[in-house]
Amino acid sequence: MPDHSPRDSREVPSSADAKRRPRLPGAVVVRRSPDELIDALAADLFLHSLACVRQFGDFHLALGVWPEAERFFLRLLYDPRFRELPWVRTHLWIVEESLPASRFAALEDSIVGQSDIPENQVHRVVGDSPAEAAERYEAALRETLGWREKGHDRLDFALLPVLSGGETFGVELRQPDAPLVTVLESSVTMSARLLNATRFLALLALGEGSAEAVRAIDHSPRRASDAMIPGGRLHACDLRPLGGEVRWYVDESLCAEAPALPPIPLDGETA
């Protein structure tokens, strides 16, 4: 019988092996279609969640919410391969919340409403103002993660989009004394300090502007340090997890054709 259990995305052959993968700062997972890409991401999250529960007793999951991610949320709930995902041991966070409109509503309708995640492990952004909400959210993060042993008190997995221009959710604040959560315009969002401390950062290139952004990063993978604007929108290629891993999930259409090998010279010929 074929093995249908989830497998680490690095162990599954990719149809893009004959092509050049985009040059991105981290591991690059390539699949033929968005549907296969979501499968690979779901398998990685599933395996990582089980490992964290075995090691720490719980799993801290921070999700970015944008339209294309909703297919991923539903896949986690309805695909039998991921039925054993330990929701009862999972703490659910949101990477960026817009106020007063709520991105968390997409998680309420999918994960919160359809899984057995305990209500006290669902962490919403609430407050009478964005500043108050950010302060309360950071306090909740510190209190909840503080139950873990020192050094392990960090998020386990964060899902982020690749947005137009190569940006992502989050704010460019990474100093040791920077806040974990702050306000960007009318949104409450996590800082680079918090995201870079996460064990596993998953960057999903699905959505408007993501293809152009990946191609732009591929063409110019290094950014000048002065391009980082403290307090500004975080750029996806500036994420550098400390003691963690970053994986990019991209469609095969973003892979360039590999250059052809030079012909083998025949006897008596020179290359």
Overview features:
alpha/beta, globular, Rossmann fold, 271 residues, six-stranded parallel beta sheet
CATH class wording: Alpha Beta
What structural category arises from helix and sheet content?
alpha/beta
Strand residues, percent: 15-25%
Q: What is the element string, with H for helices and E for strands?
A: EEHEHEEHHEEEEHEHEEE
**Oligomeric category:** single chain
Averaged pLDDT:
88
At CATH level 3, the topology is Rossmann fold
Which architecture per CATH?
A: 3-Layer(aba) Sandwich
Identify the overall geometry. Answer: globular
Strand order of the largest sheet: 2-12-10-6-3-4
Helical proportion? 25-40%
Largest sheet: 6 strands, parallel
Stretches with pLDDT under 50, minimum 5 residues: none
**How many discrete structural domains?**
1
Give the N-terminus to C-terminus distance in angstroms. Answer: 50 Å
Gyration radius (Cα, Å) is 20 Å
Total number of strands: 13
**Discrete helix count:** 6
Question: How would you explain this protein's 3D organization?
Answer:
The chain contains 6 helices and 13 strands. Helix content is 27%, strand content 20%. Strands 2-12-10-6-3-4 form a 6-stranded parallel sheet, with helices on both faces. The protein is an alpha/beta fold. It has a single domain, classed as Rossmann fold, CATH 3.40.50.1360. Helix 1 packs across helix 2 (70-78) and helix 2 runs parallel beside helix 3. It has helices at 34-56, 70-78, 105-114, 130-145, 192-196, 210-219; strands spanning 19-20, 27-31, 59-63, 90-94, 96-98, 157-161, 167-171, 181-184, 187-190, 200-204, 233-235, 245-251, 256-257. Helix 2 (70-78) links the parallel strand 3 (59-63) and strand 4.
